[in-house]
Amino acid sequence: MRRPGRRLAAIWHGRRLPPGVVVFTIAQDPPMRLGLLVGIIGVIGTFAGPSLAGTVAGKLELPPPPDRGPEIAKGFLDRVENPLAEIKKVNIAPYFVVVLEGEARPDTAPAEVTWDLVGESFARPVVAVPVGAQVVIKNTTQISRTIGAAEDPKLFAGPLAPTGTKSFRATQPAIYTIGDPGAPHLKGKLVVVATTHVATLDDSGRFEMTEVPDGSYKLRVFYYDPGAERSGGKSDWLPFSSDVTVAAKGRTEVNAKLPALPAAPGKK
C-alpha cells in the first residue's frame, strides 16, 4: 500500500540551470512514476523556453539616388540615352544600415564582426557594429594595404598584409571612415552603436532582425554618402525614426518611406 506522504522537492544536483527553470522530483516508495516525473520536467521546459525574443522586419522605400557630383576631371564622352534600354540607376541600398535603439539589453556579449576587403573595395560600403564587439577587417586580396581610420589614426597600426587581418574592440558609439591613404577610392564607413539589433537592406529595401527582446524601440537609419563627403559634406543619420513595439515571440513589420537624401554641398 502506498504511503500518502508523497512530496515535491526542488533539486539542484550541483549543476547550474537556466534562469527560471526549476526541476522537481517525487519522493515515493517504488520508482514507478518516472513517466510522471519526465512529464513535469517537460512542462516546465516548455514554459521556460530558450528564447522569448521576437522578430522585427519590414521594407523601407528608398529615396531617389543622389545626382552625380561636380566633375573634377573629364576623360570620357557624355552619356547618350539608349533607345532600347534605360541607363541602370545607381543602387544605394548597400549604403544604408538600420538599427533598433531601446532600453532592452542582451544577455550575451556581441559577437565578432568581420568586414571583408575584396578587390578594390569593402564587401559592404557601410556596416553597423554593436558596442563591445570585436571588429575584424580581413584582406581577401593579394595586395598589401595601409588601413586606417580618419577619425582615430591609432585605431589600427601597421600594414594589412595580403589575406591578413586587423582588429579592434568597439568600446563606445562612434562613426569611423576606414580607408587607405594610398588608394583614395578605397573607403568604407564603420558605425558603432549602443545596440546589438542592426541590419542591412537588400536591393528592394527589405531588412530583418531576429532575437529582439520584447519592449519598445526606436528604428533609425544611417546613410553613407560618399558623394557628399567628396564635396565637403558628411554622412549621418537620416531625419527619420519609427517607434517599434516588440512582443514576446512575435513578429513586427515596419514599412515606411525614407525622406529625400540631403543635397550635396553646393547643390540646391
Can you walk me through this structure?
With 268 residues, the chain is mainly β. The chain has 3 domains: 7-47, no CATH class; 51-65 and 90-106 and 196-260, Immunoglobulin-like (Sandwich), CATH 2.60.40.1120; 109-190, Cupredoxins -  blue copper proteins (Immunoglobulin-like, Sandwich). Helix content is 7%, strand content 40%. The chain contains 2 helices and 17 strands. The radius of gyration is 26 Å and the shape is globular. It starts with 6 loop residues before the first strand and ends in an 11-residue tail after the last strand. The relative contact order is 0.21. The model is unreliable at 1-50 and 69-74 (pLDDT under 50).
Q: How would you summarize what this structure contains?
A:
The chain is mainly beta and 268 residues long.
